[in-house]
Amino acid sequence: IKHQDLKPGNIMMNEDKTMLKITDFGEAMNLAHTFNSKKAEAGTSYYKAPEQHKSVSTLESDIWSYGCIVL
User: Fold this and answer.
1) Quick one: pLDDT at residue 60?
2) Measuring CA to CA, which residue among 20, 66, 21 is closest to residue 43?
3) How many CB atoms lie within 10 A of CB 52?
4) DSSP code of 3?
5) For residue 68, is pLDDT > 90?
6) What is the pLDDT of residues 34-53, one digit of tens each?
7) 3-state secondary structure 6-69
8) Cα-based distances in Å from 6 to 16, 44, 53, 63, 70
9) Rounded CA gap, 27 and 16, in Å?
10) Alpha-carbon distance 14 to 36, whole Å?
11) CA dist list (Å): 70 to 32, 39, 67
12) Model-level pTM?
């Protein structure tokens, strides 16, 4: 699954900080049906990968977003 909108507001953590959960899969896409998607308008600008600003979304786009979150 490509989430396509990873950002801090879509990540929940339990009180003792031992478990994370990703939420809000409204823009997610099943990788079994698509790998490179032209539907990349979704997402929060600050966390979007450069290719998403050109309307292309890949699995690596979520990895970019994750990197923005942990920095």
Assistant:
1) 92
2) 66
3) 23
4) -
5) yes
6) 555 545 455 678 898 998 88
7) CCHHHEEECCCCCCEEECCCCCCECCCCCCCECCCCCCCHHHCCHHHHHCCECHHHHHHHHHHH
8) 22, 8, 15, 9, 11
9) 29
10) 33
11) 28, 25, 5
12) 0.71
Which residues have a catalytic role annotated? 5
Whose structure tokens read 């998403």? Answer: 52
Question: Encoding tokens for residue 18?
Answer: 């031992």
Spatial contact of 48 and 66, defined as CB atoms under 8 Å apart? no
Q: What's the token pair of residue 22?
A: 């990703």
Cα separations (Å) of 59 from 14, 31, 33, 35, 36?
Answer: 26, 8, 13, 7, 8
At residue 32, the pLDDT reads 58
Sign, Cα dihedral of 44, 49, 53, 57:
negative
* Three-class secondary structure of residue 71 per DSSP: coil
